[in-house]
Amino acid sequence: MHAIGVDIGGTKIAAGVVDEDGTILAQTRRATEPDDAASIDRAVADVYAELSQSYEVQAIGVAAAGFVNSERSTVLFAPNIAWRDYPLRDRVRALLDDDVRIVVENDANAAGWAEFRFGAGRAVDDMLMLTVGTGLGGALIVGGKLVRGAWGVAAEVGHMRVVPGGHYCGCGHEGCWEQYASGSALVRDAQAAIVVDAERGATLLALAGGDAQDLTGPQVTQAAQDGDPLAVDLLAQLGRWIGEGAASVAALLDPALVVIGGGVGAAGDLLLDPARHAFADQLSARGHRPEAKIMLASMGNEAGIVGAADLARI
Amino acid sequence: MHAIGVDIGGTKIAAGVVDEDGTILAQTRRATEPDDAASIDRAVADVYAELSQSYEVQAIGVAAAGFVNSERSTVLFAPNIAWRDYPLRDRVRALLDDDVRIVVENDANAAGWAEFRFGAGRAVDDMLMLTVGTGLGGALIVGGKLVRGAWGVAAEVGHMRVVPGGHYCGCGHEGCWEQYASGSALVRDAQAAIVVDAERGATLLALAGGDAQDLTGPQVTQAAQDGDPLAVDLLAQLGRWIGEGAASVAALLDPALVVIGGGVGAAGDLLLDPARHAFADQLSARGHRPEAKIMLASMGNEAGIVGAADLARI
Amino acid sequence: MHAIGVDIGGTKIAAGVVDEDGTILAQTRRATEPDDAASIDRAVADVYAELSQSYEVQAIGVAAAGFVNSERSTVLFAPNIAWRDYPLRDRVRALLDDDVRIVVENDANAAGWAEFRFGAGRAVDDMLMLTVGTGLGGALIVGGKLVRGAWGVAAEVGHMRVVPGGHYCGCGHEGCWEQYASGSALVRDAQAAIVVDAERGATLLALAGGDAQDLTGPQVTQAAQDGDPLAVDLLAQLGRWIGEGAASVAALLDPALVVIGGGVGAAGDLLLDPARHAFADQLSARGHRPEAKIMLASMGNEAGIVGAADLARI
Amino acid sequence: MHAIGVDIGGTKIAAGVVDEDGTILAQTRRATEPDDAASIDRAVADVYAELSQSYEVQAIGVAAAGFVNSERSTVLFAPNIAWRDYPLRDRVRALLDDDVRIVVENDANAAGWAEFRFGAGRAVDDMLMLTVGTGLGGALIVGGKLVRGAWGVAAEVGHMRVVPGGHYCGCGHEGCWEQYASGSALVRDAQAAIVVDAERGATLLALAGGDAQDLTGPQVTQAAQDGDPLAVDLLAQLGRWIGEGAASVAALLDPALVVIGGGVGAAGDLLLDPARHAFADQLSARGHRPEAKIMLASMGNEAGIVGAADLARI
């Protein structure tokens, strides 16, 4: 059975027809306006109209960054789109002529589900997905099922507290994991290191064109791959925070696998080796179970489309 | 359908016939020897023989403090009993004449399941159980199912790290939640407070008979209920650590309910109010979902028997 | 003997003739340009010319925000003025006709010295001065002498680390005391609290005119004095960080007195009581010595002038 | 001018005649009884009688582990000897026939002073002495003078808090520096590491004779020198805590030198290199001053005698 997955970004949506093996058979895109929720409704209806001409489609999964209620119909809150308690499912439905099943999902959940079903996690039943990008998002698979929580707000992994009195987070709290294990944290730590030791930070500063405020995560990764000692240390520190936090999650959920997605994955073993060591070092009951593997995500940018489509079938 | 639940303690086992509503129809006990695993096997077989004379029993659930494999047959490790990779299920079976279903469960999981099915959590699908005793144990219910993890070692909630570089834990790590949110932590903090300020600690010291090493958790609770300011503060601090840690779990699992079991529950609102405030203060996405309730467990000491029996039916 | 004290701010200098009792006999001011170091040299020479017409002056003390070398002649670095290894003493001298003694001092040291000699600390020999403003500055008096350190950079109290992995500091490190015990910290914590709980933060948000970014420290203090529970809590938290950090300083230096200066002093006991409790709670060897007092500074904004003048006499 | 230095230990006292260059001209010892304060008084009088037969002595300095009042006459509290507000100076004087000057000093202060006057610190005016033994003691030299504090209890460096909510300390507080930077911390961390990873800890466990409770600091040092990776890591971690804490002290006092004494010094660069790196990494105002050196103490076990004698002359 085919389903359409729609990945809603800030200024565009990407959609694809996905078969039961997770293969994308056809794709399309539309530009959207984040401040105009109706433009997004129309775009979703539009891609459905287009894609359903050539394929028989029995469900639409819509993935978006935001809190989705447990009925998978309403976006409670979205950080980058004008959705506040927005009944996205019903608004889209009202624009369609047929009664195709429509399901709304959090985008990190969709991507994690894709990895679980068709990617790095297809061999396991219990998995922690971490999407290490600007922030730290994620998804939890427990016993083969996606964890949505009582109110649809589970898997806000980035807001587990890892340091009491630690870094301020945009959520209003201190010490959230994403302030230590994200691309933003990597860049901030790099900028701080340049302040502390200009000589040691010279390579990174040069890569940033002379202004540390312009430094990017990929530049840090590039510098590390070129052997810059500071950049290597910064990625190792990021890896350690990923691994140590994952060990806390493992104390709760005992996953068989931790999948790392997001841009920092480009750093490869410069990130993963420290993450694995830190995870093993901090893992409780270490001698009494196998250690969960830590692997990179394998589904790429289309994980959101694939996961949303697949979740719509359930 | 009736099932027998067996709760294995250090020096005795308690067993009961439990019906499908969680009611215990009959109970019995046996003394056991923790260093003699076979004595426990025989005691389990023995209580089954006794109880199955009067009741038709279709399953036995055996709850024990320790790591149980995901097949629910073998105790991987137990802190207080001589079990190391011990095939408890098969050893008991070998002593029985019939082929009644036998299931081994972690005792905290069993107690949490009883609360979920018949106690404080019977109205919810997603629940965090915390057993605050000498240590901090617990159980996780996600989507109506008990979380066991990939290797049966999930819900080791007490070993989520809450303070990097924090208190030493018997597990070899630092800063584990149970070093801040347990009866032992309460007593240690009380002892430390007596050292810091003898005047302020005078009431507690007197309750301990003049030697802080003899202080107990119930004494601290009693002093708090009698209005001793230090004891009130100590319970409030314990409550805050419970609440703050529970907020980290909520970031991951979004439970509808946190159930507090174990001896410290006797402190009632002296503990629960600070826990609730701290939970609310630390909860991420607070404005976008209802707040989980924090309630005391309602099943008492027989939760292990009831939960083990009920899990054996599944 | 009279001395002139000069307090160099970002855009103006204030100067006064100070007698040996710390009384300011005459004052004057000049506008200056922070990007033009020579304009400041000329202004200092100019106020000397003016004030020395009416008073016999034997020394000039110049106080400035920045690192001053241990010879008290050169500003190594200033955050807000274009001084980098700037020989301020010699530049001013070159503009003067006579050989009056000229001494350069860090402004926090000057203010602390004034409190020690003529203000809150005049009865003690060992004192910690904390200037809690935008940042956290201070001065240390040990055995009746100002602590300057081996390279003139002592008493950077705000950069003692109080939380490993804590808040980012402009200095490039994490967890510096000033990120927890300053007016900026107060405002940031208030802004965060508004994000966490809009209802609880409503009063502060209203005081800020509806935009938390516009909130100021004095608004928080005002709200606390009017009884707003959140504001009271925020000042108490600030006070606790002041007291706990001061206890660490006391472990090192065993001062008889901690003097709190800077704008937050306006909060009075709303700040001081929590500071005193936290200090006592965290003080080591508490039963074996009197507890240092914690008092507000008494010299006001002219402490810099008075202290600089007095230090120039030594 | 000659002075006698007396170093009072738990079960014996060691005394020597010291000249103005810090050279010990003659030595003697007496056994003492820690529970019998009078036995110590007599032993001090006795060594004075013996040593003053051959040397003209003008002062006696008595060094002891404990809090000494600022008049340098009374031991306020001693952890290992039966002194509580004990007027040691006057008790000894009452046993003597002449009116030789007698001064009581804290033993860590005495040892630090010896390093400052005659040892590693003889070229500087501002110095931090750290004695890393069972606990973490120290001495502070500011502007060429020993810091005693308002009540004689300064330089309790081990009780500066470095981790809020950190390890319990015998003083009743949490997170004291000495719980991270001492020989005891080294051993506890080693024991914890053995629990976490038995394979990695095998060498240390073997050195301890198979029982981690018997492990000693010198065994960890020996293992590190023999290349055991865990032991090397443990010493590096100890070194980092020393360096990071010293950076906090440097923010306050800007010393030119940090001197490391105590048993862990045997680890040499395995300890010092990580300490130096961590100190440099955490040092505030790093680009604006030279970095303090970190060196081993050079005076050996007789530092207490030499320092006590020299301080008695002041």
From TrEMBL, chains A, B, C, D:
GO BP annotation list: glycolytic process
Record-linked Pfam families: ROK (PF00480)
Protein family: Belongs to the ROK (NagC/XylR) family.
Matches recorded under InterPro entries: ATPase_NBD, ROK, ROK_cs, ROK_glcA
Organism superkingdom: Bacteria
Alphabetical UniProt keywords: ATP-binding, Kinase, Nucleotide-binding, Transferase
Enzyme Commission (EC) number: 2.7.1.2
Gene Ontology molecular function, alphabetical: ATP binding; glucokinase activity
GO CC term, one of those recorded: cytoplasm
CDD domains: ASKHA_NBD_ROK_SgGLK-like
Name used for this protein in its record: Glucokinase
NCBIfam families for the chain: ROK_glcA_fam (TIGR00744)
The organism of origin for this protein: Cellulomonas aerilata
Enzyme class: transferase
